[in-house]
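#data-curation
PF: Archiving a pair of folding outputs for the training set. Convention for this channel: one message per protein, sequence first, structure tokens after, nothing in between. First:
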Amino acid sequence: MSDMSTDKTTDKTDANVDQKLKEAYFTASQGQLIWTRFKRNRSAMAGAIVLLALILSGLFAPFLTPYNPTIAGRDKGYENGAPQIPKFWDENGFSIVPFIYTSERQRSIKTNFRWVTTINREKRRFMTFLPHGDPYTLFGLHFDRHLFGVDKGKIHLFGTDFAGKDIFSRTFHAINTSMAVGTIGVLIAFVMALIIGGVSGYYGGWIDSVLQMITDAIRTVPAIPLFMALAAFIPDTWSSEMRFFFISIILGFIGWPTLARRVRTHLLSERNQEYVLAAQLCGASASHIIRKHLLPSFTSYIIVDLVISFPYMVLSETALSFIGLGLKDPVNSLGVMLQNVTKADVLLNYQWYFIPVIFFITLVLAFVFVGDGLRDAADPYSDSKT
């Protein structure tokens, strides 16, 4: 009897749990349903974690990196230097504090008096944490402490380039720059797409025809010839900041047609719904109906489209800078850094120049996984098991 009563109690508990889950499902908001489904996508969650880590590393790059990435000759004796990997032990014994070896440059008769870099394994240089270093500004505040450094000389975890710049510092600052360009471009494209797509979809008729003609004209403009013409237009006297904002604005002005098309399609199908007609009968203006009623019903898809647009903006900036039409030194962006890997000599002798490429691929893949996850979760009602 006790076993039967226990089974009945268990069944009732399970039934209560199922009932609560069903109630939670049917009473949950759209955002909660999207988040629940998104969490079950492991690849999307992994991409979100990696993407968040990269974004934070870019934002806090001045603190996380030991040196100013724009200053050449950080270590004059270590130009085109290989990555310095911290160690805890070697043949000379163990150390609690990680250390690197000292690099020494000297001329030799054997090399026709050319500079030769040798590693002195007897001279250890120990890492330090939170040392004072190059001053920087972070969120409007001035600091001079960095996450790590070394007690003597310089440390270059990713090596140095031909000018002696620290590639580790340049990489993390480049992530921040490329993300900033993508953010500005996406915001401009987002605003233009909502305005043009909203007006076109809500009013229809000749207004829709004219706006769609403009949209199709923008979509048919070839990007590379356009940027080549703009590159010829940009004066050499422009500062790096002016070039930065100019590239961001141009990317935004040519990136809105796709989202505008989607907004227009949605509004064309929704503008005759009963809640829209009720708002019209109440005297609501067209801008109020579009802003308060139509666009909120499309919010999840807009968010998905924005996330998916980010990697394309980053790719555009990188491609333009890579071919010399975008940002240039001393601005640090992923595209600018990828310019250094175009020579065969780099592949043969300076393979560490490809480290920023790994971060670039990781950033794009993280955006893709997150975008795919959001796209699958944008319509949570399609899967009753969520």
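PF: Second:
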Amino acid sequence: MLSKNTKNIINGVLFVAIFAAAATMIADIQIIKNLGLSPLVIGIVLGMFYANTIHNKIPSAWDAGITFSGKKILRFAIVFYGFRITFSQIAEVGMDGFLVSLIMLTSTFIIGTYAGIKFFKLDRDTSMLNASGASVCGAAAVLATEPVLKSQEYKAAIAVSMVVLFGTIAMFLYPALYASGILDMSAREFGIYTGGTVHEVAQVVAVGGAFTQETSDTAVIVKMTRVLLIAPMLILLGLYLAYSAKNNSKDTKANIVIPWFAVYFILVAGFNSLQLLPQNIVDIINEIDTFLLTVAMTALGMGTKFSKFKSVGAAPFYAAFVMFVWLVVGGYFITKAVVGTL
């Protein structure tokens, strides 16, 4: 016999899964595909709709299952995100693509965090979540960073909304800049630039796919390099947070928190690099993983009330805008400099 708490968790997870399934079907509509909106983004929108409308009509005991979806299922899904990457793909794009990814990730995260805290008076967690979404891989990066920071759900929702806004702008701006000749770049350079600076994987696919196959392939591989770099970033972030906690408290034995799911993510990517599993099996794993990520994102949205957004005002937008300008302008010059040097 299952305990009452276990039943509530199962009911809550199933409830979230229904919303996630709806998000998956909506994201599969052609017009939504054309906008580059992933099931993850649709999921958080549906979750937020629930949180601000019919939340009180659902048994509160199911909240345990919603929390489980946003925490435990999230970690599992991030680990299996590694099946989307192989080390050989990263090698194919070359050292210049890797360096552009590394430089843009590091600089954007630092600029976003610093600007958010110092200039726009955001709290640490909101600033870092905002920065992780812009610097790494959009909504998935926000999801992965949230458990390391142990932040409140609405802060991650704010960061995701900024990813959606500026990532969508990038989808239209980048092709326009390239087609107009303002960006003096070869097809490969533009691919590196796109993969190294656009927020979401789906948005990179949309931008790169509008041009040559070389541009598209290069953009996606560079983007996946950024995705892989989320693991060392989270490990370093965990060490930094532990160091800060130790310095800011009298407890000199503050624990070092290593996000093990990030380590397992690297191991899974390494296993996938060996190509031991047939591609059709890997494709199925990735489809299941996308759904699990959608479940986690939907659960995150279900913990987000619009009333909480009022406390931060327009500051997240300003911080995200600063990062967007850096990605577009700084990313261009860094790409030209790195590719021209190597």
